[in-house]
Design goal:
216 residues, alpha+beta, binds N-oxalylglycine, binds manganese (II) ion
Length: 216
């Protein structure tokens, strides 16, 4: 499949404007080299100890392992290491910045490490369906230092029902892609090499007196 090249990256300071205009934004240099290094070291350890789990589709009781939809392994962040705390601090800064500028009312963040093994992929999907989830804003941060042409694993972004992609993003270290979870269909093309990232979601709080939300 012929993919369009990456068209535009956005400075951190302009993220809200780009997100507001097009629903997604790509920011290079989002994570420092030092933090990328620390997260990679942590992932080396986690992989040595086989602590990542095959990822599924759906939550809780509707959780399914469906390897025709996605083939990657994940581990939820719990803030248990310095690197994770630095990453979660960066997410908190971003949450406040977005709330101050776009008034999205983002309430909290959940995220996981994701490693796609060779031949791993994730078919075209939305991260959240209107009214069914409180995930509002998705963030994916890449950790592979030297992505070569031909390594595959690109993140392809679509708009509405248009079958032609609008962006094809190489998953290279330091880069972050941020998009509206309910609006931007996307997929991860098959990767030829092990592909590392942290993916996460900012959620809104839909709590009512009779229901705690986000679910604990
Ligand atoms: C996801 C996802 C994209 C990527 O985890 O939901 O779409 O580039 N990830 O890893
Ligand atoms: Mn997704």
């Amino acid at each position: 499949m012929q993919q369009p090249l990456l068209k535009s990256t956005t400075a951190y300071s302009a993220l809200p404007e780009t997100l507001g205009q097009q629903g997604w934004a790509i920011c290079d240099g989002f994570l420092s080299n030092a933090l990328v290094e620390a997260l990679n070291l942590e992932l080396d350890r986690l992989q040595d100890r086989q602590q990542l789990n095959p990822a599924g589709v759906g939550r809780d009781t509707s959780f399914q392992l469906n390897q025709s939809i996605r083939r990657d392994t994940t581990l939820w962040l719990d803030g248990g290491t310095l690197a994770q705390r630095q990453l979660l601090d960066a997410m908190e800064q971003l949450r406040l910045f977005i709330n101050q500028t776009l008034f999205m009312g983002l309430f909290d963040f959940e995220g996981h490490f994701a490693v796609y093994p060779p031949n791993g992929f994730y078919q075209k999907h939305l991260d959240s369906f209107r009214g069914q989830s409180n995930r509002m804003l998705s963030v994916v941060m890449y950790l592979n230092r030297e992505w070569q042409p031909g390594d595959g694993g690109e993140l392809v972004i679509y708009r509405d029902d248009d079958p032609l992609p609008v962006e094809c993003v190489i998953p290279q270290a330091g880069r972050a892609v941020i998009f509206l979870s309910e609006e931007i269909p996307h997929e991860v093309l098959a990767t030829r090499v092990s592909r590392r990232s942290v993916a996460g979601w900012f959620r809104v709080n839909n709590s009512r007196p009779d229901r705690i939300d986000p679910a604990l």
